[in-house]
Amino acid sequence: MKFPQKHTLKQIATILNCNYVGNDDFPVMGMNEIHVVEPGDIVFVDHPKYYDKALQSAATVVLINKEVDCPAGKALLISTDPFRDFNTLTDFFRPFQKATSSIAASAKIGEGTIVQPGTFIGNNVVVGKNCLIHPNVSIYDNCIIRDNVTIHAGTVLGADAFYYKNRPEGFDKLLSGGRVVVENNVDLGALCTIDKGVTGDTLIKEGSKIDNQVHVGHDTVIGKKCLIASQVGIAGCVIIEDEVTIWGQVGIASAITIGTKAVLLAQSGVSKSLAPHKTYFGYPAEEARRKYKELASIRQIPSIIEKLG
Predict the structure, then answer these.
(1) Closest CA to 135 of 107, 114, 112, 154
(2) Which end of the chain has less Cβ packing within 10 Å, N or C?
(3) Domain 2-93 of CATH type 3.40.1390.10
(4) DSSP code of 182?
(5) Interior/surface letters 284-309, b for 16+ CB within 10 angstroms, e for the rest
(6) What distances in angstroms separate CA 221 from CA 23, 33, 199, 235, one per listed residue?
(7) Does the predicted TM-score (pTM) go above 0.70?
(8) pLDDT in the model for residue 308
(9) 13 Cβ neighbours under 8 A, 6+ residues apart
(10) Do you find a cis peptide bond into 71, omega within 30 degrees of 0?
(11) Are strands 75-78 and 19-21 parallel, antiparallel or unpaired?
């Protein structure tokens, strides 16, 4: 998430009321999670296990809960609670805006687009040309829909990320300031839920087709010309490369990659990254031929025991 304008390290520290290491005028351009940070971004870290990863990332400002040596060319924000302060910045730079109408005055809708009754389109949403948005679709603030997109009834774009910190008093929610971006010629079925990024974009690339009742988690990227059948659940930060086919009721764990033109057969469970150009089945998902041979072998166990007995 980029800020509307450049800020200085001192300005950000003032917002957070925290100490800092670096020049007062050190430039700060935005804030992001570690997997999408760029120079000029703030990244937060609150566990020693991840200190080195954060300090060595592309981010040039690290919001951290310990005084450490500052890497060359970077700055530190010293916080008693980086998770809390990251939320403070999200709320400061992208606060919740109350809706005052079913289609916000700030929304932009392209020529030839049809919006059916009961649809909600939030603040700063952009919808391209020749789209068809069916009844009771909800498109939250800041989402981007390109041209020739069809969205069926009841689908929700831009709900919050499912991201919580477990504290003694209960679960503390990480605020979501990102977006959903849907490229040209995408079809979304009925009752799909596409969560926005925490700070970046959840992205569905050109030409992909998604069936009914599919969930896409925060910051996930779905490549070009993918086919995803009904009741698939995709966790956050997943990378699905181009022309992947995913059949019904597949579950995909967070932060993994599905290679180009992979095929995931129905009801498979994916817990690790999968190589391209192969067909997978089962839980944990493995190459389908191998999995079917294993199942055939298991069926033979009773007869083998009987013979041995």
Answers:
(1) 154
(2) C
(3) yes
(4) E
(5) ebbebeebeeeeeeeeeeeeeeeeee
(6) 36, 15, 14, 11
(7) yes
(8) 84
(9) 19, 20, 77
(10) no
(11) antiparallel
* Amino acid occupying residue 157: L
Asked whether 247 and 228 are in contact (CB, 8 A), the reply is no
Q: Which residue has the tokens 């007062």?
A: 24
C-alpha to C-alpha distance for 44 and 243, rounded to whole angstroms: 34
pLDDT of residue 240: 98
What is the residue extent of each domain of the chain?
2-93, 108-276
Identify the active-site residue in 47, 215, 218, 277.
Answer: 218
134 is catalytic: no
Q: Which of 151, 178, 2, 163 is nearest to 83 (CA)?
A: 163
What is the domain class of 108-276 according to CATH? mainly beta
User: Under a CB-based contact definition with an 8 Å cutoff, are residues 210 and 190 in contact?
Assistant: no
Which residue in this structure is represented by tokens 């995709």? 234
**pLDDT-derived band of residue 306, with 50, 70 and 90 as boundaries?**
confident
Residue with the two structure tokens 């050190």: 26
The identity of residue 190, as a single letter, is A
The conformation of residue 49, written as its DSSP 8-state character, comes to: G
